[in-house]
Write a structure and sequence with these properties.
8 helices; single chain; 40% helix; two-stranded parallel sheet; 4 strands; extended; 6% strand; mainly alpha
């Protein structure tokens, strides 16, 4: 990513002008200088197609070269309907399936939603929990009402309501431990934060006293950093 971001200058040996990637490029690559992409084979969905090809032309006009496989009927179909397909591209985006108030969604999103509501209605310091307590309860009440409206199965509704209460109570317990800052990026090891960044290192104490809050809709899974090393071990 750093090498791709580096602009070319006369005599530069760090900038690169080509990169071979898999479909993983569709997420998180926001490099303005990229302007040409060759796509081998039609992506499985229209949404993925738009995400992948949206990585180039972010600052200047970009060019996409589609390389279809004539032995695949799906690629041939897209080739034959190229103009009509692209004229109505947004109309063909597939709907996203979602389960309202799923337990995993509550666990990942509820702390951020409660903090957001509280901060919109109060501007006190983060370590003054009592200034925000009433607004947190108000936000929870609204979400409980919404959950009861959209959950049709009694068993699912009860499970979701219990999880709403549990996650909210967990947040309130952590908030009462007197955090000194809302958040900081990158976080410091000795910082006392209410909100922790996904994918960033946090000490055991910080995890106990803070809650992970996503900063965008893509931060839903854990991540790990890998590096390719030249330090190979040889065996006799």
């Amino acid at each position: 990513m750093d090498l791709l971001s580096a602009e070319y200058t006369l005599g530069s040996k760090t900038a690169i002008d080509a990169c071979l990637v898999s479909s993983i490029i569709e997420v998180g690559v926001d490099i303005e200088r990229l302007s040409l992409m060759g796509v081998i084979g039609q992506p499985k969905t229209t949404a993925q197609y738009m995400q992948v090809t949206g990585r180039v032309g972010r600052k200047w006009p970009g060019l996409i070269m589609m390389i279809y496989n004539p032995s695949k009927s799906r690629d041939r179909s897209h080739f034959e309907q190229f103009h009509s397909y692209h004229r109505r591209l947004y109309e063909r985006v597939e709907p996203t399936s979602a389960t309202p108030f799923a337990l995993s969604a509550i666990q990942r999103a509820l702390p951020g939603a409660l903090i957001l509501w509280a901060r919109l209605h109060c501007s006190d310091r983060v370590n003054n929990f009592h200034a925000y307590e009433n607004e947190i309860n108000n936000a929870l009440k609204l979400l409980r009402v919404r959950c009861e409206m959209v959950q049709t199965e009694a068993q699912d509704q009860e499970r979701s309501l219990n999880e709403l209460d549990r996650v909210c109570q967990e947040l309130m317990v952590k908030w009462q431990q007197n955090p000194q800052q809302w958040e900081n990026f990158p976080p410091e090891n000795n910082g006392e934060y209410l909100m922790l960044w996904p994918g960033q290192y946090a000490t055991r104490t910080q995890k106990t006293r803070g809650t992970v809050v996503a900063s965008n809709m893509r931060q839903v899974d854990g991540s790990a950093e890998l590096a390719i090393s030249q330090g190979y071990v040889t065996h006799n």
